[in-house]
Amino acid sequence: MTTLRDRILNAGGKPDMASIATWIGHSAPRFAQLMECFLHDEYRVVQRAAWIISLVADEQPSLLQPHLPAMVARMQEAGLPVAVKRNVVRVLQVLHIPEDLQGAVMEQCFIFLADPQETVAVRAFSMTVLANLAKEYPEIKGEIVMLIEDALEQEPTPGIVSRAKKVLKLLNN
């Protein structure tokens, strides 16, 4: 019998990842298996599981809610693979973040956004997460704007510029 872990390891690309996400479907137990791979396995499995999690989040965001504390804790670990950071922050853009996790998410996204060595995707997704949190915490808008302006100065890549324009417009409304 092939395990989910085996399927993840043998996956060859986007079609295979989409197939696994479809197999998970609405199943909370299957999603829990995926989270187990994401949280506790070797690098390649964790990296691919992160990708599948982001695909599932697009279709079944409610499956992620019980796992958000573990995902946020994982996001805060030092030396985290880029794929994990990218996919966790990507997912957090579209999910309701419970109040008890908002501070930790906010702090980590500020760290990601302020780090010029961080990837463009992680920084861009962090901008959106912070802008969403600023709806509940308007006092953080100034710091977000300052960090976005720094990012535009330091690294005006198309991804940073595009996301910065959208986020600044959101923050000014």
From TrEMBL:
<dbReference type="InterPro" id="IPR011989">
    <property type="entry name" value="ARM-like"/>
</dbReference>
<protein>
    <recommendedName>
        <fullName>HEAT repeat domain-containing protein</fullName>
    </recommendedName>
</protein>
<dbReference type="InterPro" id="IPR016024">
    <property type="entry name" value="ARM-type_fold"/>
</dbReference>
